[in-house]
Amino acid sequence: MSLNPSLEFRELASQDEQQAIDAHQSMLADDFEFLPTWSMAEPWEDYIYRMNAGRRGEHIPDGWVRSALFGAFDDGELVGRVSVRYELNDFLLQNGGHIGYGVLPEHRRRGMAVALCQFGLAEVGHAGVDSALLTCDSMNAGSIATILRCGGVLDPQLPSLEAADGSKTLRYWISTQSNH
Ligand SMILES: CC(C)(COP(=O)(O)OP(=O)(O)OC[C@H]1O[C@@H](n2cnc3c(N)ncnc32)[C@H](O)[C@@H]1OP(=O)(O)O)[C@@H](O)C(=O)NCCC(=O)NCCS
């Protein structure tokens, strides 16, 4: 497997404000936060400062872990994002895991999610994570296929978790070594 060569992955910057906020609004329909923890009330510069500081392990709220957010750009156009957590806490062990990704609707079914997931695996792998946890809703066929394509294996001890509303979260592990 190789990363989609035309994609550029980088931290979000000042010039990405409009594209990123448009992406955030468009993916609310999927019940997906393109810009994790962002709200309209937060100035863009403050948000990217906070995200990029988090990657360096600075300004991390109590109980949170070091994390980073990357935009995926195809010829300058924002097509998706991948967020990575460099370690797990109790919450992430149940739900969230090391890597989360989303692809804008108009760019789906072209292998973007697989490329995003592979980038996330390489990123946490370089930071010393040998096996990455990915979680997803049992009804999310696209994400399940992405995880399987990247080598995901259901957690033998806790393959799924059921919430009070009946929704099920699947928990997969992927070796980061085969994805470097
Ligand atoms: C799920 C999502 C990331 C897939 O993105 P994508 O770029 O279309 O995925 P890819 O083109 O890389 O396809 C990866 C695999 O998923 C399959 N797939 C993608 N969308 C699918 C769908 N809606 N139903 C069934 N399979 C789907 C593809 O066929 C491919 O499988 P294959 O390699 O076995 O052929 C995208 O639909 C999305 O962003 N959804 C909203 C956010 C989200 O659910 N994020 C994941 C949270 S865990």
Automatic annotation (TrEMBL):
Native organism taxonomy:
Bacteria, Bacillati, Actinomycetota, Actinomycetes, Micrococcales
Annotated Pfam families: Acetyltransf_1
Which protein are we looking at?
A: GNAT family N-acetyltransferase
Identify the enzyme class.
Answer: transferase
Q: Which residues form the N-acetyltransferase domain?
A: 7-171
A GO molecular-function annotation = acyltransferase activity, transferring groups other than amino-acyl groups
Superkingdom assignment = Bacteria
Q: Which PROSITE patterns match?
A: GNAT (PS51186)
Listed CDD domains: NAT_SF
Keywords annotated in UniProt: Acyltransferase, Transferase
Q: Return the SUPFAM superfamilies for the record.
A: Acyl-CoA N-acyltransferases (Nat) (SSF55729)
The EC number(s) attached to this protein equal: 2.3.1.-
